[in-house]
Amino acid sequence: MAENRPTVFADGVIEAQVAHGVARITLATTGPDGKAQPCALLCVPVTQLPSMVNGMGNLLKQIEDRVRAQVAQQPGTAAAPAADGVAPGAFRFQS
């Protein structure tokens, strides 16, 4: 059976606050006028926030490593199609 999970696109954060042990982070998208507009509220228990932030930091490091590897390739070299079904230029997060 297919998973039914909401997908939220965000390209920024409007505000973050902590109350009663929960971090509430208002995510934003950039509107047509170039201003941030709220799109979702991410609620994370403060006790889990370091783990979540570390996971995002690891993801960023993997992205940086992948970009450096692609830049290091000689120009004109085509990337081989991925065997795991991930689109070229994309990859899976490895925890």
**Quick one: biggest sheet?**
3 strands, antiparallel
How is the largest sheet built, in terms of strand order? Answer: 1-2-3
The total count of helices amounts to 1
Order of helices and strands: EEEH
Distance from first to last alpha carbon:
25 Å
**CATH topology category name of one domain:** Nuclear Transport Factor 2, Chain: A
How large, in whole angstroms, is the Cα Rg?
A: 18 Å
**Mean pLDDT across all amino acids:** 85
What class, by secondary structure content? alpha+beta
The number of E-state strands comes to: 3
What ranges have pLDDT less than 50 throughout 5 or more consecutive residues?
none
Approximately how much beta-strand content do the residues carry? 25-35%
Shape: extended
